[in-house]
């Protein structure tokens, strides 16, 4: 009699392994059998804690089962037991590479229930910080892609940029990572004295460094091209069928972007392009990310050029009691569409909060795309999805 | 009289071997330090700078740490194979140093088949790798070992083919003769007439030393260390020493074969018995290029590695072999 744990294991391993456990012969006509391999959850290239159950035929992956849940922190349940404003720092910790978008989505959802008017300056600052957050997430994800291909240096250049943006965030929000900056009804505080000028200076500097540090260093590399071109290839139909969003969808050529199609906040006033790439492989996703950083730079410049004056916080009561009903906040996070569904029963705590994180959905790609690829191709495909452990487990 | 006993053959050989072991182990330490400093320079950081003046004692601290660490072996490991593997990897890399001419009259064993000895010893290195991968009994190690075996056997072929041009030009398998044949300024060095062969040898040498972009047996990001994933403490240190020794070795052999060994670049720079300076300088520059490549390039995939080896390097070296042979046949006066 197998223990409950063992039986679950068996189910997740699939029929072939259970056939082996039952003692039947699984060799092919040459007397060869495939190799089972367990990659993760403690593995340097698994973007946190992901476990892949692999079946290998030589170096070729026959089957790939992602097992999630090793970083589950029950964000949704915790959110039910806190008052509305106190949930914001919880959302910060969902996607720890792009925290600001996580706050933004939740605040949008609650603001729909409160029917509160956000001041233009607060909206503009939100968009501004959100775009900084996107750069802060996209540049390291390009670096991680290179790290997974075996080149160590770009990640350090990437983290240099991230550190600089973190310093900007520290000056604006008081924290380098868990900001708690976007609040229900506005933002925590106005930009400090002289900050827009500093941001402008940084963005100009980034623009001049960007081609040199990331594009030329990576794109012209023959081995990079050989390792990424055609790897993780998928069609737009397949991507839509799987419900992908964000860069994995856009790199197949589908121009879907929440900022463009369901504009929120200050994005209505901004002029930007949705970056797509027809390739639908890892190289395409790299080009998409590079293009999106350029668009973010463009947007930040637009916001800084005409930053509206005024208050940054709407006038609400001290205790928030949203009306009964549900509100949905959709934002484009760095990894795809992030949506928050808040159900209110009229009390001061949410009745139910659901976080739709893009990583959880995009992770399906592994199961669909990886079989047939070589073992080392899993890593660039992870780089294509660019998941974050905190976001897929919540 | 008392020193004569040191010159008797077995004693001289043992002493020399002791000197070589000392040299190789120290080289490994120096190369680790160099690697960390070079990578730091490329990454725009400082590198180790706390232990000793400018961090120069860092390798000593590292070795001390590794000595105090426990040697763990997986419970299912084939323990004898597991423990013998680091030795089987280290010894060949150390032994080839016996035939490397450091300076005029400073070669421990002037074998008349030194190049064959070099080829034989690098082939044995693959054995240690397979032993490590098989003995660990882990699927990660096994994959690494299989990759390593395939890679080292494939790259042996272009490595040997690219040596043939030099052997034809110098007419000898002895490394001392090869160096002597390149006397008289850098335009006599073999890297000029044998440039394609030098490129093939350098790439195949990178693969033999298992350096990026050919570090597939290690495959840091997918098989997390490959064949050496289960090693710790001094066994791990020995594998590392073997890697660094073979990196230095490939550089030294490249210098000997293509860059005139200890020959100075110009005749008037001849330092006599101190010509080891030129040898050391050239070897260090090559080691630096190895490290430069390592911290700049991503890793190849197994099938791409095989394509490069069999479809590009082997034909290229074969073609240049025929070109060299034809030139020697048609223009005997030049050679």
TrEMBL record, chain A:
It catalyses: a quinone + NADH + 5 H(+)(in) = a quinol + NAD(+) + 4 H(+)(out). It comes from the Bacteria. The keyword Cytoplasm does not apply. One of its GO terms (cellular component) is plasma membrane. Pfam families: Complex1_49kDa. Residues 149-318, 321-394 form the NADH-quinone oxidoreductase subunit D domain. Gene3D superfamilies: Cytochrome-c3 Hydrogenase, chain B. It is a peripheral membrane protein. Its EC number is 7.1.1.-. It is found in: Cell membrane. InterPro entries: NADH_Q_OxRdtase_suD (IPR001135), NDH1_su_D/H (IPR022885), NiFe-Hase_large (IPR029014). One of its GO terms (molecular function) is NAD binding. Keywords: Cell membrane, Membrane, NAD, Oxidoreductase, Quinone, Translocase, Transport. It is an enzyme of class 7 (translocase). NDH-1 shuttles electrons from NADH, via FMN and iron-sulfur (Fe-S) centers, to quinones in the respiratory chain. The immediate electron acceptor for the enzyme in this species is believed to be a menaquinone. Couples the redox reaction to proton translocation (for every two electrons transferred, four hydrogen ions are translocated across the cytoplasmic membrane), and thus conserves the redox energy in a proton gradient. Belongs to the complex I 49 kDa subunit family. NDH-1 is composed of 14 different subunits. Subunits NuoB, C, D, E, F, and G constitute the peripheral sector of the complex. PANTHER family: NADH DEHYDROGENASE [UBIQUINONE] IRON-SULFUR PROTEIN 2, MITOCHONDRIAL, NADH-UBIQUINONE OXIDOREDUCTASE 49 KDA SUBUNIT. This is NADH-quinone oxidoreductase subunit D. It comes from Rubrobacter marinus. The lineage of its organism: Bacteria, Bacillati, Actinomycetota, Rubrobacteria, Rubrobacterales. The gene is nuoD.
From TrEMBL, chain B:
GO terms for cellular component: plasma membrane. It is an enzyme of class 7 (translocase). The keyword Cell membrane applies. One of its GO terms (biological process) is aerobic respiration. InterPro entries: NADH_UbQ_OxRdtase_su1/FPO (IPR001694), NADH_UbQ_OxRdtase_su1_CS (IPR018086). It is found in: Cell membrane; Membrane. It is a multi-pass membrane protein. NDH-1 is composed of 14 different subunits. Subunits NuoA, H, J, K, L, M, N constitute the membrane sector of the complex. Belongs to the complex I subunit 1 family. This is NADH-quinone oxidoreductase subunit H. The gene is nuoH.
């Amino acid at each position: 009699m197998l223990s409950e744990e063992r039986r679950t294991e068996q189910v997740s391993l699939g029929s072939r392994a259970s056939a082996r456990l039952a003692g039947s012969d699984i060799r092919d006509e040459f007397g060869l059998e495939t190799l089972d391999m367990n990659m993760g959850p403690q593995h340097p290239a698994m973007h946190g804690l992901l476990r892949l159950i692999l079946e290998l035929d030589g170096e070729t992956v026959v089957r790939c089962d992602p097992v999630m849940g090793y970083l589950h922190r029950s964000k949704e349940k915790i959110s039910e037991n806190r008052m509305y404003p106190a949930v914001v720092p919880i959302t910060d910790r969902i996607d720890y590479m792009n925290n600001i978008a996580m706050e933004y989505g939740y605040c949008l959802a609650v603001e729909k229930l409160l029917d509160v008017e956000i001041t233009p300056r607060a909206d503009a600052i939100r968009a501004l910080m959100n775009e900084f957050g996107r750069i802060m997430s996209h540049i390291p994800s390009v670096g991680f892609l290179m790290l997974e291909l075996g080149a160590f240096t770009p990640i350090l250049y990437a983290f240099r940029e991230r550190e600089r943006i973190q310093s900007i965030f520290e000056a604006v929000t008081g924290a380098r990572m868990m900001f708690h900056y976007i609040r229900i009804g506005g933002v925590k505080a106005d930009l400090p004295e002289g900050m827009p000028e500093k941001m402008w200076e940084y963005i100009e500097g980034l623009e001049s460094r960007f081609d040199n540090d990331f594009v030329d260093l990576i794109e012209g590399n023959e081995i990079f091209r050989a390792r990424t071109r055609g790897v993780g290839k998928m069609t737009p139909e397949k991507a839509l069928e799987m419900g992908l969003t964000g860069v994995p969808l856009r790199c197949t050529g589908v121009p879907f972007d929440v900022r463009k199609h369901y504009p929120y906040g200050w994005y209505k006033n901004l002029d930007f392009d949705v970056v797509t790439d027809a390739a639908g492989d890892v190289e395409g996703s790299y080009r998409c990310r590079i293009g999106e950083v350029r668009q973010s730079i463009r947007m930040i410049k637009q916001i800084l050029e005409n930053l509206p004056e005024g208050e940054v916080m709407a006038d609400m009561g001290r205790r928030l009691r949203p009306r009964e009903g549900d509100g949905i906040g959709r934002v484009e996070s760095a990894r795809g569409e992030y949506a928050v569904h808040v159900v209110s029963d009229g009390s001061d705590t949410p009745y139910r909060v659901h976080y739709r994180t893009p990583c959880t959905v995009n992770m399906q790609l592994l199961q669909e795309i990886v079989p047939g690829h070589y073992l080392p191709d899993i890593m660039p495909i992870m780089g294509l999805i660019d998941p974050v452990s905190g976001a897929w487990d919540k | 009289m008392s020193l004569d006993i040191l010159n008797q053959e077995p004693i001289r050989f043992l002493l020399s071997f002791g000197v070589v072991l000392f040299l190789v182990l120290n080289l490994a330490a120096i190369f680790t330090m160099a690697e960390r400093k070079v990578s730091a320079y490329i990454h725009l950081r400082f590198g180790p700078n706390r232990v000793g003046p400018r961090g120069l004692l860092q390798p000593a601290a590292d070795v001390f740490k590794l000595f105090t660490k426990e040697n763990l072996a997986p419970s299912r490991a084939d323990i004898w194979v597991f423990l013998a593997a680091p030795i089987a990897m280290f010894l060949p890399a150390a032994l080839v140093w016996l035939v490397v001419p450091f300076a005029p009259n400073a070669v421990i064993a002037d074998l008349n088949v030194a190049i064959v000895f070099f080829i034989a010893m690098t082939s044995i290195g693959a054995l240690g790798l397979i032993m490590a991968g098989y003995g660990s009994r882990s699927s990660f190690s096994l994959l690494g070992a299989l990759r390593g075996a395939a890679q080292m056997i494939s790259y042996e072929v272009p490595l040997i083919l690219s040596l043939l041009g030099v052997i034809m030009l110098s007419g000898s398998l002895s490394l001392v003769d090869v160096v002597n044949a390149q006397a008289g300024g850098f335009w006599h060095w073999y890297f000029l007439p044998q440039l394609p062969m030098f490129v093939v040898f350098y790439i195949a040498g990178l693969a033999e030393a298992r350096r990026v972009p050919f570090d597939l047996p290690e495959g840091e990001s997918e098989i997390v260390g490959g064949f050496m994933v289960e090693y710790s403490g001094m066994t791990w240190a020995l594998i590392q020493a073997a890697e660094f020794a073979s990196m230095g070795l490939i550089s030294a052999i490249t210098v000997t074969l293509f860059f005139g060994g200890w020959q100075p670049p110009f005749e008037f720079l001849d330092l006599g018995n101190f010509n080891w300076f030129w040898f050391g300088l050239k070897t260090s520059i090559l080691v630096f290029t190895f490290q430069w490549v390592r911290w700049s390039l991503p890793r190849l995939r197994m099938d791409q590695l095989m394509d490069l080896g069999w479809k590009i390097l082997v034909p290229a070296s074969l073609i240049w072999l025929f070109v060299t042979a034809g030139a020697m046949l048609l223009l005997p006066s030049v050679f």
